Amino acid sequence: MIRSTAHSALRTLLPADFYRDRQMYDQCLDTLFAPSWQFLAGPEIPSTPGHAHPVTLLPGSLNEPMLLSVDADGREHVLSNVCTHRGNLLVSTPGRCRQLVCGYHGRAFAPDGTCLRQPGLDRVKGFPGREDDLRRPASGHWAGLRFVRLAGDASFEEWMAPIAERTAHLPWDTLEPLPEHCTTYPVKAHWALYTDNFLEGLHIPFIHPALREALDMSVYPIHLFPRGSLQMGLAKENEPAFDLPPGHPDAGSRVYAWYFWLFPNLMLNVYPWGLSVNVVEPTGPDSTRVRYLTYRFRGQQGGPQSHALAATEEEDDRVVEQVQRGTRSRLYHPGHLVPEWESAVVHFHQMVLRHLPPRA
Fold this sequence. Notes:
The chain is of the alpha+beta class. The protein folds into 2 domains: 2-36 and 155-354, Naphthalene 1,2-dioxygenase Alpha Subunit, Chain A, domain 1 (Alpha-Beta Complex); 39-137, Rieske [2Fe-2S] iron-sulphur domain (Rieske Iron-sulfur Protein). The protein has 7 helices and 21 strands. The chain has helices at residues 22-33, 156-166, 191-198, 204-207, 209-214, 309-327, 339-354, and strands at residues 2-3, 10-11, 38-41, 51-57, 64-70, 76-80, 95-96, 100-101, 108-109, 115-117, 138-142, 145-149, 175-177, 183-187, 222-225, 228-234, 255-262, 266-271, 274-284, 287-297, 336-337. The strands form 5 sheets. Strands 1, 13, 14, 15, 16, 17, 18, 19 and 20 form a 9-stranded antiparallel sheet that branches. Strand 15 and strand 16 (228-234) form a beta hairpin. Helix 3 crosses helix 6 (309-327). The chain is globular, with a radius of gyration of 22 Å.
């Protein structure tokens, strides 16, 4: 873990044309998103034995057909939803499914993706082989949230460790979805602009009046991790805060919320009452879809209303769309950043650049 302590001036590292260039956008999909851990689904999709549930990973960009399949013993499997015979999609609607049978030519698979049979190949030596099984991408599971990685070798445990360790005392096994507080917003801006905005609290006094009244803005700790960062919002008196156990790294602080970001596009906002998830889904060089998912710890008081989440999200969306228009200006060039507040933005830019090929 790296604590943000720099005092020299910082500059953004991503050039202005990164936020508008189609070629760099496409490069990010292949070299940055496909090899990284991506949110697939939360506890709103139950692990019901003998059922299968199709999910599209990052629709509008990666468009990867995935499948959550649960066998009769309750073991969940994350699979490709593409038949290994001729590429047909196996499952189109969620429901009961003892076996996965392709509706195109009848190839059948077990719930764990193992190929069982194919009409016309019963006498072919070596069939079925491992190459006939459904593809099983790397998957991870934390607090009822499912994640998948299509390529690369990034460790899920290392990626999730900063959150798992700091919040280990919370009752994650009681997390329940709040569907009435789940929504999706189209944002007319580049996905990285939305991320830039999330990664600094400097804008809070200017953009978020309700949050400004709740937080002590005289101090705003930022911690940088190898694959993400943490911003800590500290509560004013009479505002809700965590009851932290002895020995916790933040013991003695009135923590209003932990704002975690995990590279490249996941925000996990942890509150005393539960969890708010922002999944930032790129859909084009100047368009993004942000999925807001909300969960509460069972029996816990408070909720999204007590932290004005809906208003804060709409305020962020509006300002990011304005910034997108500004970055298209021929006269715009990025300037100095504020070290105590925007170090996580630079940290993000450094990671993005490591995943892009050098520019000619």
